[in-house]
Amino acid sequence: MESAAPALTGAMATGSVAGLLTDLLAAAGWLGAHWYLLAMAAAAATAAGEAVVRRYAARASSQRMALELVASRHFEPATEEIFRHGLQLARASAALPWWAPHRARTVQIRLRADGTAPLRYRIEGPASSERLLAITPFGPDVTVTKATPITDKRRKHTVRAEFVLRGNPVAPLREVPLEPDPLQPLVDAVSDLDAELGDLAEIRLDIQQAPRWALHRRRRQLLAAAHQTARRHAQRSSSWLRQGAGGRDSVLAHLREQLTERTAGAGSARRLFVAPAPRQVDEAQALGKLAEDDQLVRVQLLVVCSANQEGRAQARLAQVHAALDVFAGRSRWAIRGWRLGPWRVGAGHWLYRSSFERRWDLGQCRPPRANWVRMEELTGLLKPPTRHCRLPLLAADVPSFVLGDPQLLLQGTYRSPDGRERLVATYADETFFEVGVGKAGGGKTERALAQAIAWAHAGGGLMFVDPHRDSWPRAMTFLAHDDLMPRITLVDLNGLGPNPHVSSWNPLGMQHGRAPHEVVEAITDAYASALGWDDTTAPRAITILTAALAVLVAVNAAACRAARPEDQATLFHVRALVTDPAFRSAALAIAEDSINEETRSWWRTVFPTLSPDACAVILNPMVRLAANPITHAFLGQPVGAYDIRTAMDSRTIMWVCPGGSGPTDRLLTALLARDLLRAVRSRRDLPEEQRVPFRPYFDELITLTGSAPETIAAMFEDFRKYRVHVHGMTQLLARLPAAVRLSLMQNASTLATTAGSKSAIGPVTAEWGDSPSAEQVATMERFSHYVSMNVRGRRIGPMKVRGPHLDTLFAAQARPQQVPALEQAALTNAGALPLAELTEHATDQLARVTDFLAEHAPTASRVQPSKGYE
Question: How far apart are CA 511 and CA 193, in angstroms?
Fold first, then answer.
């Protein structure tokens, strides 16, 4: 019995094992028969897991922030700065709670163009990484602002694409230099977007730190593939060797060899073949860029292009794809998907569209297994456009010019990269001062004329000062409109023709109620500026002239109070005041209550002690003015028609042609310039919103500033406050006085230059950081300009434009048959009369003033006649 127990136990164990095997076979048979249940359970578990992961991923993705990076036009980052920014992005991608799925752990770079900006650069990532990403290593050249969500209107046509790395899976992308900017091809691809057609192109690059298990798995796959490749190569080499030995690798060859050996006997030789061993795999070469863990990330590249016109979105995607070829080397970006004849199955197909849109909308990253890159491969995409990137000029950047719009100021014709041309403009209310530089005949005056004519047609007031008068005949054809003629005046001091008509101006006139001290100061400063006087070199001349003008202005104020403005004194009566005791006594008697005690005391005590030749320094310029019949007629009238303050307030279109550049002309120009400065400053009596915009245009600044440098400089410094905006043109900045040149360059809202010598245009290109260089500008064709401008507070340019040509731009506004009527109306509006009539009136004016003094002077003057200079 005892010996039977172990046998029974063994039998039972054997039966248990057999039963277990039977049960397992039965279960396997059942599962084989009901495999669909197992598949359904696995699918249900997978779906449930995916649903949970999606829910938590969507929850994590909802807590995101967006930053917009705007680079200055001088942004030029170093490679190390870009690399550090990439490390920041990789670090920020992991700034999520522990429970967040890996697909939500990403930072996204968004490159977006919709026709409103050349290429907007945004960064989106976890909200907890905002503090990390807000401080970039790029420094002050990049402005980081918190971006608002973008809401797109629905377009009719949209194409989608996901890009995957193709080629050698371990080879890096091409190392693209930073100059020119690697983003240039992308910028060019979207440069012709039309916002009105709904064009949109957006590229999203997701950067994600990969888990180590994924990297190790990828390495194993690459090593296994390398070993398999080595084995295939060995097998192929063995086959080639056997084929080269006569095909002994076949069965028939072996049988033939055996029969040959038996026939020949044991002495026959037998050849042995040894198959070559597979070559040893070099792991570093097989793994390539995946051999090291440092700065290794996974990326996802998604692109969406939309438009409202069929075909434009597809064409845009092709352009973006071509732009990405700049990174192509042994590895390149290719659209993911497969093609079946004319059909392509990719991100836009219904099979993959939901996955694409989920990642697009939520900012999640599920990259293809091949999309492993090192940080230096992404250098070109980790930064905004730099100074080496040529950004296109969009309609949203610089508005298109529309004739008749008072808010716009014409600048020129811009040619976009796609060959389309449009007239561009700046906003009038932020174009404070404008400077045009360039050689003679380069087109700077033509451009200024086009701008002035367009401004006139828009209802604006202006003053075009041209010493040579060439601009007036050029502009008349396009200003000869019935609605413009009442606003146009011509002050022409060239004296052309047998019987010229001349306007009139009395700088001492008080009929408009001007402040006496402002009138005296304006004339004295004009003389001092034109003649080079100052308190050190000519203090006595300034004192004599100031005292004389104070008396004459007081006399004119008395004449206006007496309702006799036609009896006012002019500049030419200074001579009578200082040389004629009777005239001086009567004038001082009338002016005694109007001038201050200091001036009265000077006339009583100082003037009688002056030597006979003391007043020659102030009389000589007036003698020269009187000797010229044009200036004598223009300045010798008691009530002048020229009034720049009224012209400004009434939107007058005024052409002023001083007539030359000699000493007399410079003095007259200085008087006009100083009167303009006085009139503009007098606008402080108006609230700012009531100050009508006015634009003086100064052609040939070298000629004008030679007589009044400090006055012109003050215009560029002060006029903005009074809504008067100066435009100046000159051939050479270097020939302008230092004060004028510094004020011009400091305050210019628009800076333009045509071609010229490198030394002449060097100061302008230096203001632009020598981009473009002086060599590039010097070789431009005629009527081409480089222009920098302010638009909505941003500095735009320098950009190349073609200057407008009047005959082309204003062909529809040309009225040559009405030119005679316009010239007659312009002279009439300026109060121009025949030169002979004005000369006679100016000659008789001293008698009229003397009669007025005799009638209105007190019988017993408290100011005794002096016995000094006679």
Answer: 59
